[in-house]
Structure formats: structure tokens, C-alpha cells
Amino acid sequence: MTLPPLDAMARAIVQAHTARLGLPAAEGAAPPAADAAGADPVQRAALQAAHALGFSAADASCVAEAWARQTQRTGVFSAADWPCE
Known about the structure:
By secondary structure, the chain is an all-alpha fold. It has helices at 6-21, 41-52, 57-74. The model has no long low-confidence stretch (mean pLDDT 82).
């Protein structure tokens, strides 16, 4: 499966869900470490996006893992489809 660049995936997730979630932006907080989510690029992008959307570190990690698993399950990265399983 060919994926977009990590930053592009993260931006797409943020753009697709900012208005719906209504969480405060994580201004001033340190972004997650680049290797915090391991080698999976979707998980890393989703972690970056969840952080930008204002999720706590623990919740961002859960969202990132769910996004990576959804992408593996469906075979397609979709920023618009919030993980549901």
C-alpha cells in the first residue's frame, strides 16, 4: 500500500476532524516524539494529529493505534473516516 507523506496524513486528519471534535488546540505542548508510535507511518501521523487536536497523550496513543489498525484492516488510509473498531 502506498501512503502519503506522514505530515500530509496528519494535516488531513486534523482538517477533517477539527470542527467536529471541538477540542482545544494543544498550543505550547511538546509534540510527541517522532518514534513514539513505532515504525507504522499511519500510527505516527495519527499520533501527531491527535496531539494537534488536543487529545491527552494517553488518548492520542489510543486514537493512533486505532487509526493504524483501521488502515491495515481496510487497506486504505482515509483521513475522513474516524476509526470505529
